[in-house]
Amino acid sequence: MLTDEIETALDLTELERVMISRFANRFFLNREVDPAIVKGILNSARYAATGANVQPWRVHVAAGSARRQLIDAISTAHETSPGDHSSEYRYLPETLPEPFASRLREFGAVFFGSLGIGREDVAARAANTARNCRFFDAPVALIFTIDRRLERGSWLDLGMFIQNVMLAAKARGLDTCTQEFLSRYHAVIREELTLGPEELVVCTMAMGYGDPDWAKRRPQMPKVPVDEFASFYGL
Ligand SMILES: Cc1cc2nc3c(=O)[nH]c(=O)nc-3n(C[C@H](O)[C@H](O)[C@H](O)COP(=O)(O)O)c2cc1C
């Protein structure tokens, strides 16, 4: 879906169309993804730029019975002992400064509004959170890790790699939802998959063929216009 908000003097390239049409999809068809496609996406994504070419990412991909087992273990932990699990890093500060706090509030309103979930509907919100644990029922689950000995710079590189994965997937008709939420269940993930002790779980990703009905109805997350985040000098 291309939005009316996008104003540019240029015609969009094919790549830009892919960039603009990507969105965090949380509704997937019950349709398997050919493993060759997943490998092909990762093969293209690895060409991401990285400082000093250190290529700090590792990714663990689970489908079929491995994915089911992983989902069962995470869901059980979420149902029985959510308080025992926390991420190895902080994603956002405890107090979010402006303008970010307002954007977060707007995200909540758009997101929960699109699902018909009210502000006070604790049960429905919890059910939505639980869907995170099932990778939103997507057939492919990816876990992105980074070597904990690396510095912030390498986290930039990982982000570029993850973006490449999302765009390559979109270009092949696949949708994704990146998830920081599951980083709190790193101990469970570690038990189910083979992670080295140096690997820090940064985020996960649900990947699959998106539900076309939802794609038609889904809200466009508000995006800050260029003039609000860019300053131009001499052009
Ligand atoms: C690093 C990262 C972590 C995210 N974590 C979650 C998550 O845990 N659960 C979720 O439902 N969405 C998650 N999202 C999706 C964001 O909510 C979504 O990207 C944002 O609202 C913008 O919407 P759009 O991707 O559709 O443009 C995450 C996205 C990113 C990039």
Automatic annotation (TrEMBL):
Lineage of producing organism: Bacteria, Pseudomonadati, Pseudomonadota, Betaproteobacteria, Burkholderiales
Cofactor dependency: FMN
Family, as annotated: Belongs to the nitroreductase family.
Pfam families: Nitroreductase
Transferase keyword on record: no
Protein name: Nitrobenzene nitroreductase
Oxidoreductase keyword on record: yes
EC number, as in UniProt: 1.7.1.16
Organism: Paraburkholderia phenoliruptrix
PANTHER family named among the record's database cross-references: NAD(P)H NITROREDUCTASE YDGI-RELATED, NITROREDUCTASE
